[in-house]
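Hello K.,

You asked for the raw outputs rather than the summary table, so here they are, unedited. I folded two proteins back to back in the same session to keep the settings identical. This is the first:
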Amino acid sequence: MAKALILLLGHLLLALPALATSMRDPTQPPAAYMAGFRGVAEDEATMPAERNLQSIIRRHGAKPLATISGQTLAVGGQIDGWTLVRIGEAEVELKGPGGREILMLTPAVDKQPARPASVRRQR
């Protein structure tokens, strides 16, 4: 009985890496959610490989960097045939075979300036 249990656990440990590669990143929004922002088909099988902006790194005295789909790039860097042409405050601009594309850190969030204290209601 103990041998069978050890053998079963051994097989399970060997299968774990294969299971992990097929799992989807749980922190990414569903494809249908992102399709609404990009205007593409909701079916994941027909969606092109999408680039997503993960972070913008600003370093004192150095050029900014952007992490796009896990690859860190400076202006002029390339990913999937697209060239990074500009790094903004919360977005980057890519130029490629399909024209220009802007990737945003938070695509569904529009920044609004806060109202000045003089405009707020007095209590």
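The second followed immediately with the same parameters:
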Amino acid sequence: MSKRENYELKTESLVLPILEENKFELVDVEYVKEAGNNYLRIYIDKEGGITINDCELVSRKLSDLLDEDDFIPDAYILEVSSPGLGRPLKKEKDFARSIGKEVDVRLYKQIDKQKEFTGILVSYDHEKIELEIYEDEVIEIPRSNIALIRLAFDF
């Protein structure tokens, strides 16, 4: 297990009780380096959406626990936020929540001379997704060929 994965798992175990107590859902934990800074990002959600006060509550409680445990020796910036509209679908619960919704899919390799599709997510499993791209036209896309899949949104 990499250092990054270890940090993410330990952080997840610290933040889950806080989220359960407040009826929030953990969407993702990531430890990344960007522009010379390390970031520990926690993405949370709840029915009706997350507020800035929700993020602040989780951030304060988690920050105290991280200071106590002190398992990340490097300096980092803690960020707690809502997942946002354009977040990628990563976990099984993301896919389950998105059944029947419109998604954007980018591929590594073309299918029918296309690398990008938008359609309704009909089903998924570990091997593939089924995407309704036109009424009554469903295509199968191997998950190994998916570079990015996220909820579609219009402005």
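The mean pLDDT is 92.

Happy to rerun anything if the numbers look odd on your end.

Regards,
P.
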